């Protein structure tokens, strides 16, 4: 049951709905903005200055971080550049030493070389190779390096030619000395001539004088050779020292250039800081003047505004002055630190210039006695023999390679001819196969057209005979179901038939047993209640009982028992 609402309650509810509107919930709640209390424009200026100082401090920190990162990067690049410069100095020093050794070896063999003037010019050009390397471009560097490598290769080839010439000349001299007679032979010839001659004074022959001169010259040659090797070793050590000093000089020059650049940058930064200091001084003076004016104004307005406002303004002006004084002290400290750094850099620059001048003097005033050869002649000779043997082996290998190349070219040409013939045969076969495939394709297309037409005809026929096929299918399904039912019934009847046959067999067995039993027994009928007497003919009785048993074989087991009782009729007394 639903209760009815009273009209008064409806009116009350309507009035309540009209008086109190539905309040909507806010989805976003904003925090209230808190504005600080401000008494004068000086407070606004102080707040603005605080914000500006905070922003400037943030920028300064960011700038400091960037400066630290850039400083680390510059240090890494400087260390890498120092390593590269050291590597270049070592390579240039060893190359210059090699060129100098080759030049000294070529100078030892008189004026037989045609590259002496070119060697002098090239040697003069390679002295300042590192200094020129920094001013060249990539293409020019590659060209200059190729020229220098070509010059070194030509000098080595010329030295090899000179060694060949010297070995040939030494062989000729050795053959001449071997062909000359010795001093013993000359003495024997002289004694025989004295015995046969008139005078006993022996005169040295021409061959003896030549042998003596050869011995003296060989001794002098060995002495000069030893002296030359000694001078070469001294010259080698001095050249190594000079090349190291030259490399140090180039490095010092590059460092001096870097120091001058850094000095110019520091000077620029100093000028910039001085300008900034002047600007800050000017601003400080303006702020002091403004503060004085504000103090005067505050003094004038003390009676109007009271003691509290005057104290506030004086506190603000004092805080501004303190901040400005602190910033001024920081700037002065920075300026003094920069001046100290500049003084230290200037002192370092002066020391480096002094070292540079001393190194230049040491280079210019080297003694003339300390300028010759190295002790690597035997090493160069062994290297030359090894190179010569390698060259002969390489020539033999080159000839073998040329013969192999010729054989390979002929074999390759034959192989190409065979491949071309095989390709022609393959192309002919391919053409034949293509023609056969085209014929097969045409036949397949024809068959496809025939099949397509047959398929279309069958499709149209199937479309016409569709409903008939459906009805036939339905009939077939119904027939199948009926067949299944009939099969089930037939199986059920078979089972019943088997059961009846088994029962019949049992009954037959029982009947036969009963027949045997009755045949062995003598039956006497006794009439108890009825008036009918048993017939004396026993065959009739037996036939009637047999017929009754045969008729009741199709019935169930209980019915058979009843028929047996009925057939027996009145009770019999069996006498065996």
From TrEMBL:
Keyword set, alphabetical order: Chromatin regulator, Coiled coil, Metal-binding, Nucleus, Transferase, Ubl conjugation pathway, Zinc, Zinc-finger
Compartment annotation: Nucleus
BRE1A/B-like domain segment(s): 368-516
Leader sequence residues: none
E.C. number: 2.3.2.27
Coiled-coil annotated residue ranges, if any: 60-87, 325-362, 391-496
Annotated BRE1-like coiled-coil containing domain residues: 76-180
Stretches for region Disordered: 1-21, 179-205, 528-576
BP terms from Gene Ontology: chromatin organization; protein ubiquitination
Domain of life of the organism encoding this protein: Eukaryota
Reactions catalysed: S-ubiquitinyl-[E2 ubiquitin-conjugating enzyme]-L-cysteine + [acceptor protein]-L-lysine = [E2 ubiquitin-conjugating enzyme]-L-cysteine + N(6)-ubiquitinyl-[acceptor protein]-L-lysine
Pfam families: BRE1B (PF26052), CC_Bre1 (PF26095)
Pathway where it operates: Protein modification; protein ubiquitination
Polar residues bias: start-end ranges: 180-205
GO MF: ubiquitin protein ligase activity; zinc ion binding
InterPro entries linked to this entry: BRE1-like_CC, BRE1A/B-like_dom, E3_ubiquit_lig_Bre1
Record flagged with keyword Iron-sulfur: no
A GO term from the CC aspect: HULC complex
Similarity comment text for this entry: Belongs to the BRE1 family.
PANTHER family tied to this protein: E3 UBIQUITIN-PROTEIN LIGASE BRE1, RING FINGER PROTEIN-RELATED
The protein, known as: E3 ubiquitin protein ligase
Organism listed in the record: Toxocara canis
């Amino acid at each position: 049951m639903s209760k009815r609402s009273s009209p008064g309650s409806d009116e009350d509810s309507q009035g309540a709905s009209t008086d109190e509107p539905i309040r909507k919930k806010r989805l976003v709640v904003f925090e209230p903005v808190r504005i600080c209390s401000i008494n004068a424009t000086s407070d606004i200026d102080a707040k603005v200055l605080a914000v500006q100082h905070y922003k400037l401090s943030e920028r300064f920190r960011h700038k400091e971080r960037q400066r630290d990162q850039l400083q680390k990067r510059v240090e890494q690049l400087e260390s890498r550049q120092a390593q590269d410069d050291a590597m270049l100095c070592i390579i240039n020093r060893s190359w210059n030493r090699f060129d100098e050794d080759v030049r000294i070896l070529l100078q030892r063999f008189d004026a037989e070389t045609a590259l002496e003037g070119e060697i002098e010019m090239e040697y003069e050009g390679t002295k300042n190779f590192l200094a020129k390397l920094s001013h060249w471009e990539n293409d020019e560097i590659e060209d200059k390096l190729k020229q220098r490598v070509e010059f070194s290769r030509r000098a080595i080839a010329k030295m090899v030619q000179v060694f060949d010439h010297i070995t040939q000349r030494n062989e000729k001299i050795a053959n001449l000395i071997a062909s000359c007679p010795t001093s013993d032979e000359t003495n024997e010839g002289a004694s025989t001539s004295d015995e046969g001659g008139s005078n006993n004074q022996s005169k040295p022959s021409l061959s003896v004088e030549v042998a003596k001169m050869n011995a003296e010259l060989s001794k002098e040659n060995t002495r000069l050779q030893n002296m030359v090797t000694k001078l070469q070793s001294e010259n080698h050590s001095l050249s190594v020292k000079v090349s190291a000093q030259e490399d140090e000089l180039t490095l010092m020059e590059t460092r001096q250039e870097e120091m001058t650049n850094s000095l110019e940058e520091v000077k620029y930064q100093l000028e910039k800081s001085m300008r900034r200091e002047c600007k800050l001084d000017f601003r400080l003076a303006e702020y002091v003047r403004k503060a004085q004016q504000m103090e005067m104004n505050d003094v004038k307005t003390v009676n109007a505004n009271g003691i509290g406002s005057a104290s506030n303004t004086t506190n603000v002006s004092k805080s501004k002055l303190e901040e400005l004084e602190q910033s001024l002290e920081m700037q002065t400290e920075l300026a003094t630190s920069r001046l100290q750094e500049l003084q230290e850099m200037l002192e370092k620059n002066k020391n480096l210039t002094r070292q540079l001048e001393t190194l230049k003097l040491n280079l210019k005033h080297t003694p003339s006695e300390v300028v010759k050869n190295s002790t690597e002649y035997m090493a160069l000779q062994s290297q030359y023999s090894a190179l010569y043997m390698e060259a002969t082996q390489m020539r033999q290998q080159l000839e073998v390679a040329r013969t192999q190349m010729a054989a390979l070219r002929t074999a390759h040409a034959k192989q190409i001819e065979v491949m071309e013939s095989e390709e022609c045969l393959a192309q002919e076969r391919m053409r034949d196969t293509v023609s056969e495939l085209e014929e097969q394709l045409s036949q397949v297309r024809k068959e496809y057209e025939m099949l397509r037409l047959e398929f279309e005809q069958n499709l149209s026929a199937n479309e016409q005979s569709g409903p008939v096929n459906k009805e036939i299918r339905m009939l077939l399904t119904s027939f199948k179901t009926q067949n299944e039912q009939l099969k089930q019934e037939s199986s059920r009847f078979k089972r019943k038939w088997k059961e009846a046959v088994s029962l019949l067999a049992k009954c037959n067995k029982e009947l036969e047993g009963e027949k045997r039993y009755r045949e062995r027994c003598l039956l006497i009928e006794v009439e108890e209640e009825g008036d009918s007497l048993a017939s004396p003919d026993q065959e009739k009785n037996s036939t009637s009982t047999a017929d009754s048993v045969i008729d009741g074989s199709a019935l169930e087991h209980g019915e058979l028992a009843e028929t047996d009782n009925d057939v027996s009729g009145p009770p019999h007394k069996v006498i065996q």
